[in-house]
Specification:
It contains 19 helices and four strands. A hairpin with a 2-residue loop joins strand 1 and strand 2. Helices cover about 60% and strands about 0% of the residues. The model is unreliable at about 405-488 (pLDDT under 50).
Length: about 500
C-alpha cells in the first residue's frame, strides 16, 4: 500500500502543478484583456456591484444607490477585501477585474475534479483548461457576478456528482451546501438542487428491473437532504412574508409563463448551446449518452451518476433560461449568459467520447447530427445579428454572427442593427469565426473618451446621469434605470 501511494504521489503533484499553471495563465490572460476596458460598460450592473462591494468594504451592509441591494450577496462579500485594499474607485475597479479573472480561472479546479469521475489525469486537465477558455470568460473583464457564479456553479456540479454516486448523509449535505453557495452568487443556480432527486431517478431507472432497490427504503435515505431543504424553504418564506427579505430585483420572475413560449425558447436555447459548444459535442452527445447508460446498467456507478446529473442539470437549466428569454423582461433574445454553467458537463462528455476511442455509432451519430442541423436551421436569423447589446447576453452568437467578417470593427453603435443574416446552418461551411475582434468590441464602453465616476452612500462621488431605457440597456429582471458615464 505504501509503495502504491509513493508511486501515485508524483502524478498527483504533477496534476496539481498543471492545474496551478492553468489557473495562473487564465488569471494573467483575462486580467490583461480586462485591462483594455477603460471603465464600466454594462449599465447598471457593474455600478450596482461596485456600490455593494464598496459598502461591504466600508463595514456596511450591501446597498446600491442608497437602496437595499437585491442581488446575490456572495460577490460583494468576497470581493470587499480586494476593494478595501485600494485607495480609490478607479483602482478598485481595476483590482476587481483582476480578481474576477482569478475567480473565473479558479473554476479549473472543480472542473478537473468533476472530469476525474470519468477520465484520467491528462484528459481531466484538458477539460480544466477548456473550462477556463469558454467564450463566457468575456465576463471576467467586467465587475459582474459571473466569475464567482461560474466557480461556485462548477463546484456545485462536482458536489452533486459525488452525492449521486453515493448519497450518504455527508455527501447530501455537502451537495446542498454547494448549491446554496452557488445560489448566493446567482439565485438561478438554486434550481440545481432539483438535479439531485432527478439524477437519482435516472440512476434508479438504469438498474435492471430485478435489482432495483425498493423505493421506500431508498427515499428514507434521503431524509437529511429533504429536512434541510424543507427548513430552508420555511425560513425563506417566513422572511419574505415578514419583510425581512426581499426579491426586489427578481420580483419580475414571479409571473405567469406561456408554456408554448417556453417550449419554443427551449428549442432556440438548445441551438444556442450547440453554437456555444462549436457543434461537435452536441453531435456526438447521443453516442456518449448511450455509452454512459450502457455502462451504468452494467454497474458503473460514476457513469450512471454522471448521466443522471448531465440530463437533470441540462433540462433544468435550459427550461429556466427559456422561460427567462420568452418573458417580457427577457427581451426576446438568447441568454447563454445564464446557460454556460452547464458547459463543464458538456466538456466532460466530449472528452469521454474521445478518451474512450471516439466510438462511432452511425444511428446515434446521425441522430445527433440531424438534430443539430434542424436546431440551427430553425434558429431565427434575427437572434444572430451583429449587435453588441444582444450578443453580450449570448456570446456564442457573436462568434457565429461574424463568420464572414474577417476584420470586424471595434466600434459602432450598439443600438443599431444591420440587416438580418442568413441562418447559421447556411454558414457553417464557410470560413471559421474570428474570436478576438468581437471580444474587444463587446467590452468597449459606450464612450471610450469618458472616464466613469460613481456616486454612493459611503464615498464622495460626482453625480451619475441616468439615461432612458430606450438609449441604454436594462440588465435582467427588475433592473434599475441605467447609469451613464459622464465626463470629469
Amino acid at each position: 500500500m505504501t509503495a502504491v501511494r509513493a508511486a501515485t504521489r508524483p502524478r498527483t503533484a504533477g496534476a496539481a502543478v498543471a492545474l496551478a499553471a492553468i489557473v495562473a495563465a487564465g488569471t494573467l490572460g483575462y486580467a490583461l484583456v480586462g485591462w483594455q476596458v477603460r471603465g464600466p460598460s454594462v449599465f447598471a450592473d457593474e455600478l450596482i456591484y461596485m456600490d455593494a462591494t464598496r459598502a461591504v468594504a466600508g463595514g456596511h451592509r450591501p446597498v446600491e444607490r442608497d437602496r437595499t441591494y437585491g442581488r446575490g450577496p456572495l460577490y460583494p462579500v468576497v470581493a470587499a477585501p480586494v476593494f478595501a485594499l485600494t485607495s480609490n474607485d478607479l483602482d478598485g475597479y481595476r483590482a476587481l477585474r483582476a480578481f474576477n479573472a482569478f475567480l473565473f480561472a479558479l473554476a479549473a479546479v472543480p472542473a478537473y475534479l468533476l472530469a476525474r469521475r470519468l477520465l484520467d489525469r491528462r484528459w481531466s486537465l484538458a477539460v480544466a483548461a477548456l473550462a477556463v477558455a469558454v467564450p463566457s470568460a468575456l465576463y471576467s473583464g467586467l465587475v459582474l457576478m459571473e466569475s464567482i457564479a461560474y466557480l461556485t456553479g462548477t463546484l456545485a456540479l462536482l458536489a452533486l456528482a459525488r452525492a449521486l454516486e453515493h448519497p450518504t448523509t455527508r455527501r447530501q449535505l455537502s451537495a446542498l451546501g454547494a448549491v446554496a453557495l452557488a445560489a448566493l452568487a446567482r439565485p438561478q443556480l438554486a434550481a440545481l438542487a432539483l438535479a439531485f432527486p432527478l439524477g437519482l431517478g435516472v440512476r434508479w431507472l438504469l438498474c435492471p428491473r430485478g435489482s432495483r432497490p425498493a423505493v421506500a427504503p431508498s427515499l428514507r435515505r434521503l431524509w437529511p437532504g429533504a429536512a434541510v431543504v424543507g427548513a430552508v424553504a420555511v425560513v425563506a418564506l417566513v422572511a419574505l412574508a415578514t419583510g425581512h427579505a426581499t426579491l426586489r430585483d427578481y420580483s419580475d420572475v414571479w409571473t405567469s409563463y406561456d408554456p408554448l413560449s417556453v417550449i419554443r425558447w427551449s428549442w432556440y436555447t438548445l441551438a444556442d448551446l450547440a453554437l456555444y459548444l462549436a457543434v461537435l459535442p452536441a453531435v456526438v452527445a447521443p453516442v456518449v449518452l448511450l455509452d454512459l447508460g450502457r455502462r451504468g446498467r452494467g454497474g458503473s456507478v460514476p457513469d450512471g451518476a454522471f448521466l443522471g446529473l448531465f440530463l437533470a442539470a441540462n433540462v433544468l437549466t435550459v427550461l429556466l433560461v427559456a422561460a427567462f428569454s420568452g418573458a417580457s423582461f427577457g427581451f426576446e433574445r438568447l441568454h447563454d449568459r445564464y446557460l454556460f454553467y452547464v458547459v463543464p458537463l458538456w466538456l466532460v462528455l466530449a472528452a469521454a467520447w474521445l478518451a474512450r476511442g471516439a466510438r462511432v455509432l452511425l444511428p446515434a451519430l446521425a441522430l445527433g447530427g440531424g438534430l443539430v442541423f434542424v436546431l440551427l436551421a430553425t434558429l431565427p436569423a434575427r437572434l444572430l445579428v451583429r449587435d453588441g447589446s444582444i450578443q453580450f447576453d449570448a456570446v456564442a452568437t457573436a462568434l457565429w454572427g461574424r463568420v464572414q467578417e474577417p476584420h470586424p470593427g471595434a466600434s459602432g453603435s450598439r443600438s443599431s442593427s444591420p440587416p438580418a443574416r442568413p441562418r447559421p446552418s447556411q454558414r457553417l461551411l464557410h470560413s471559421p469565426p474570428q474570436p478576438f475582434g468581437w471580444l474587444c468590441s463587446s467590452q468597449s464602453p459606450p464612450s471610450s473618451q469618458s472616464t466613469p465616476r460613481w456616486c454612493g452612500t459611503h464615498a464622495s462621488r460626482t453625480r451619475i446621469a441616468t439615461s432612458s431605457p430606450t438609449s441604454a440597456r436594462r440588465r435582467g429582471p427588475g433592473s434599475t434605470p441605467p447609469y451613464r458615464a459622464v465626463r470629469p
